[in-house]
Write a structure and sequence with these properties.
CATH class: Alpha Beta
Helix content: 25-40%
Number of helices: 5
Distance between the termini: 29 Å
CATH architecture: 3-Layer(aba) Sandwich
Structural class: alpha+beta
Shape: globular
Length: about 170
């Protein structure tokens, strides 16, 4: 069974705190209690990018990576969101990561479904994209099971080669 989740946005102070690995600072303005995983090495780089992004483009704050929150268990279980607002072609790209202690419990699926659903509700979005490393079978299997199809590959300076998966969305 897929758990019920919410994706909660963070303000600039919380983003900067997480980017700096300063959990106490991030928790001062976060809407929910954050965890060491979110301020750890696996997540800090993403928070740094997003903090700069909303400084430079404040309206993008509603589109960027947020906290995957399980309201039933009152737990922050990971991060998920878009890389930014839809581009000029109507494409949004997503990223997500679940805390290792909560993996294999349906949280990544729940987050991906929530992101797809939000994209479907936005008239400007026509393409939903996820990129996955070729060795990441769980993410590959997840995006394929949710209807995304492989459309190509790209080089990412941080992650290396990535396989591109997309889902065409009907204009609202």
């Amino acid at each position: 069974m897929t758990p019920s989740i919410e994706i909660l946005q963070l303000d600039a102070a919380a983003l900067r705190g997480l980017a700096d690995g300063d959990l106490a600072t991030a928790n001062r303005t976060a809407p929910v209690p954050l965890t060491p995983y979110l301020a750890g090495d696996e997540c800090r780089h993403v928070w740094g990018i997003r903090a700069v992004q909303i400084d430079e483009d404040p309206p993008s704050a509603t589109w960027i990576t947020g906290i995957v929150w399980d309201p039933g268990r009152r737990l922050a279980v990971g991060r998920a969101g878009y890389h930014g607002p839809p581009d000029e072609t109507g494409m949004v790209e997503v990223g997500y990561s679940i805390d290792p202690q909560y993996r294999r419990q349906g949280y990544a699926r729940a987050a991906l479904r929530a992101l797809i659903e939000r994209a479907r509700q936005e008239p400007a979005v026509t393409t939903f994209r996820a990129t996955v490393g070729p060795d990441n079978a769980p993410s590959r299997d997840l995006v394929l099971s949710e209807g995304l199809v492989e459309v190509g590959e790209q080089w990412d300076d941080e992650d290396g080669i990535e396989i591109i998966y997309e889902l065409a969305l009907d204009p609202a």
